[in-house]
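tool=predict chain=A
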Amino acid sequence: MILKYHSSFVMAISIVAMTLLGFTSCSSGSRNDGVNNVMVDFDSVMLASPIGIPLDMYLNGDTVFITQFHGDTLLNGFSIHDGHVLSSAIVRGNGPGEVIGPISVQKKDFGIVVCDRQGFNLYFSEMADGSNLKELMSLPQQASSVFVFDNKDVLISKIPFTIDKEYKDNTRFTLYSRDGRQLDFGKYPSFNKNEESLPVEIIAHFHQTRGFCEVSDTLFAVSTSHTLSKYSKTEKGIRLISEVLLAPYSYSYNNATVTMSATTKLEPGYMYGASYGLFHINGHLYVPFREFDKNLIIYCFDDDLNLCRKLIPKSSVSDIITIDENGRLFSILEHEDSYLAISKKVII
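tool=predict ok
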């Protein structure tokens, strides 16, 4: 069973609240009741050029594009068949058409979106390889992560160590229009009421917005380390439709000081948490997650946020994941940044 919150009612099953070192632990009971585990086999393809710490990945036809932390060019395209380098784009630097880096990328209907958080800029490219960048928006606030809608509205997750009162307490993200107007705010998950008494920097650090996807023109979903939330979106703002707890959690923390930001640490024995990434395919949401042994799995939810199954890779793959339109899972072999991992069968 998974603890689920709906805007119209609260359904609590096997809730146990414990006070631990000044904060609480939440329990959602067993998450495996009636859920199928599906083992996923992978083929591997050696990439012709090593990746200097992979950060993001997207697909276009038979080409996989991977961003890297190090290197003079931050986005490289590889053949999924033989690993040959097909393109290199997005130059690191301060000149015209260059970015400071590191970057995150998203594939949208209107092109490839590139976020340069250090440079406080969003760019887009109409080219599949991310070349010929054009400015989309200057970021109106500091951000830990930035996500873009197909209509070019922007969701910005708060950065935990520079909470600005201007952007409203008790909110984890801000929704902006494409022209930079504030549209609405997303509140923190509501499973643990005792968290409300914690400093906002602590809550912001633990509940970072780690995944985002559009479900339809009027619906979207976001994930934090331990929660999955679904919202409706209109011209008047957003409304929480439903929310589930992905796993119980309890964490210790240090308050922010003059010289150090707030920090949090998951208590021993609790599940590690969601990775960056969230996908909506054929009426299902896929959430990459690391469990106790820190092996990556993928939770599959239906559109009502009921857990349907868990996809368990037979190979140890990294947090860098994407799923193509045919339902194949792509990742990078963990500890082997030069090998692309491709699921042998479709997963949807």
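The radius of gyration is 20 Å. DSSP finds one helix and 32 strands in the chain.
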